[in-house]
Amino acid sequence: MFVSVGISSGFLSGLQVNHIDLSPIHASTLVGLTNGAANILSIVAPLIVHLIVVEATNPAQWAVLFYIASAICITCTTFYVVFASGEIQSWNGHQIDCTSTQKEQARILDEAVGLEDVQLMT
């Protein structure tokens, strides 16, 4: 279990940023979909525990459960590390051009919060 959680650090740190890498325009939608799927699947976890751990004091049953959790974690992390991409996807869409008024407003806001060095998309 210790090894699987340690290996998952690459998965978790990459996943949280990867939504923005894949689609800056749709990153919030991607986060919502992936977090929604994870939360729906987390409902299944107590049901699986109930099926595997019949006697709560039996360490062998808990060991089976931890092996299953470790296998899922290692498999998903390996899949992500091998197949994940950081390239902007074709379905991201086109960037919206800013008008000169919007650029001026953004510049004023950036100066107010100290972000003068941030480049605007044109």
TrEMBL record:
GO terms for cellular component: membrane. It is a multi-pass membrane protein. The chain crosses the membrane at residues 37-57, 64-83. GO terms for molecular function: transmembrane transporter activity. One of its GO terms (biological process) is monoatomic anion transport. It is found in: Membrane. Keywords: Membrane, Transmembrane, Transmembrane helix. PANTHER family: FI21844P1-RELATED, SOLUTE CARRIER FAMILY 17. This is Major facilitator superfamily (MFS) profile domain-containing protein.
